[in-house]
Structure to design on (202 residues):
């Protein structure tokens, strides 16, 4: 789904700096409780908080996921995910393999179901070759914009209107430029930030 040789280019700094807000809606970061078991007791880390002692899982009931490590399992996991064979994998395949490796070596307790919205969107886009020109508005202003290019079911390029050198905040101009460059295979998608939240927030 995400090509191993993914090209990321021409990212307009102001608009692209708002990617975090968009990702928080489409793929919210999971709150993970990390517990390290050692001979002299347990150490836990959760959302910037360190905890020493037993029953760390009870101290942080709102964690989405709990991972329990030893120094040996950490070393084994890090060695496995740096194996030479992984460098030929597509990016999403690598991420899936890495998580499977983690679960195989380290007890992982999922308390809340994972959100798969972002992956479902990318999979749907990848059903046909072409470019998706995505714009997100906030009031009358362009809040975020990007272009995703898919070939043979894989995301091969991420770019933005910065590739055109001007009019990077004018949605109509962006559509005109993208339409000329990707004639016949460019799909324009525009929505407001509020519409994005209503459609994809949990």
């Amino acid at each position: 789904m995400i090509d191993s040789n993914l090209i990321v280019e021409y990212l307009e700094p102001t608009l692209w700096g708002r990617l975090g807000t968009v990702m928080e809606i489409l793929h919210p970061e999971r709150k993970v409780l990390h517990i390290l078991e050692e001979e002299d007791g347990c150490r836990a880390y959760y959302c910037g908080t360190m905890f020493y002692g037993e029953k760390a899982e009870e101290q942080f009931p709102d964690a989405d996921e709990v991972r329990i490590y030893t120094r040996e399992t950490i070393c084994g996991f890090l060695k496995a995910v740096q194996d030479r064979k992984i460098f030929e994998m597509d990016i999403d395949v690598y991420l899936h393999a890495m998580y499977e490796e983690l679960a195989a070596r380290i007890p992982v307790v999922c308390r809340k179901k994972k959100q798969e919205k972002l992956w479902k969107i990318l999979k749907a886009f990848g059903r046909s070759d072409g470019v998706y020109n995505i714009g997100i508005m906030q009031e009358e202003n362009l809040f975020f914009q990007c272009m995703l290019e898919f070939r043979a079911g894989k995301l091969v390029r991420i770019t933005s209107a910065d590739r055109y050198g001007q009019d990077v905040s004018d949605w109509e101009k962006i559509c005109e430029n993208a339409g000329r460059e990707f004639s016949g295979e460019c799909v324009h998608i525009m929505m407001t930030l509020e519409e994005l939240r209503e459609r994809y927030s949990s």
